[in-house]
Amino acid sequence: MSDVIYTFNGKDITMNVCIQIRAVLDILQEKMKIDFIEAVDRFYTSETYSILQNTENGLWAESPEYIADRFFEEC
User: Fold this and answer.
1) Among 2, 27, 31, 47, which is most exposed with the fewest C-beta within 10 angstroms?
2) Is 9 left (phi over 0), alpha (psi -120 to 50) or beta?
3) pLDDT digit string (tens) for the chain, length 75 residues
4) C-alpha–C-alpha distance, residues 70 and 18, integer Å
């Protein structure tokens, strides 16, 4: 993932997206009672993560709680 650069309107938002992902992973760990590695595996293979990667839809700008809720709805 280190080679991935997320952009929105021509601006690099990679740090913003990474901060969101980390916060979502924290929520998943807490609510699902799983460790970090399992949270990463579950989130990175989810449709929610796939949608998050398309920065034009603006999901990255939502709260981590909202993104996590989308993930839980998917499960």
Assistant:
1) 2
2) left
3) 457 899 999 999 999 999 999 999 999 999 999 999 999 999 999 999 999 999 999 999 999 999 999 999 998
4) 17
**Which pair of structure tokens corresponds to residue 61?**
């700008």
Beta bridge partners of 11: 8
How many Cβ atoms from other residues are within 10 Å of residue 72's Cβ? 13
CB 42 within 8 A of CB 35: no
Q: What angle do CA 22, 36, 43 make, to 5 degrees?
A: 65
Question: Hey, what are 58's tokens?
Answer: 């603006």
The one-letter code for the residue type at 72 is F
